[in-house]
Write a structure and sequence with these properties.
mainly alpha, 76% helix
Length: 173
């Protein structure tokens, strides 16, 4: 019986210690705002059938996942607090998951195409659009403000080149 307990208890204790160390490291990373998903090894792309897809998804998660990770403790608190009905908990859980993952979709779409727009402009567009038009307005507001910002910056750049010409000299068009 003692041998049986050692054979079962030894690996279980080692596994428990490893899990505790991992949980402590994860808590420390979250506490220090250094949560990150490691980039995949290039060998992952060579896996048969699914390698390229897994590599792209993993790379995307490594770049964009922290916004979703922030939603997880909020969802856990929502369920553990038990202050609301199951239906409202489900609705809020779905809403928080979609909102947390929307950042993973919106950043590459808006910023990944070479658009150089400061993040406060995007934030103000999202907040203003959400106030004026709800969830749909959040997306439309960002698009409108980004386009407006780009047009304004092009206008400013063109005005600076017109001013830089010498007086009395006409620029060819």
């Amino acid at each position: 019986m003692l041998v049986f307990l050692l054979l079962i208890g030894g690996p279980t204790a080692m596994l428990g210690g490893s899990f505790a160390r991992y949980a402590h490291d994860a808590y420390s990373a979250f506490d220090n705002n250094t949560v990150l998903v490691k980039k995949p090894e290039p060998a992952v792309a060579d896996w048969p059938l699914v390698g390229k897809r897994v590599y792209r998804a993993w790379s995307s998660a490594a770049d964009n996942l922290p916004a979703f990770i922030i939603s997880l403790p909020v969802i856990a608190y929502l369920w553990w607090a038990g202050d609301a009905s199951t239906t409202s908990n489900i609705v809020y859980t779905i809403y928080l998951i979609v909102a947390g993952l929307a950042d993973n979709v919106l950043k590459p779409l808006l910023l990944g195409r070479g658009v150089e727009v400061p993040m406060p402009v995007i934030l103000l567009g999202a907040l203003g659009g959400m106030v004026s038009g709800g969830i749909i307005g959040m997306f439309v507001g960002v698009a409108l403000l980004v386009v407006g910002y780009q047009v304004f910056m092009d206008w400013i750049d063109n005005a600076e080149t017109d001013i830089s010409a010498e007086p009395g000299q006409i620029e060819p068009e």
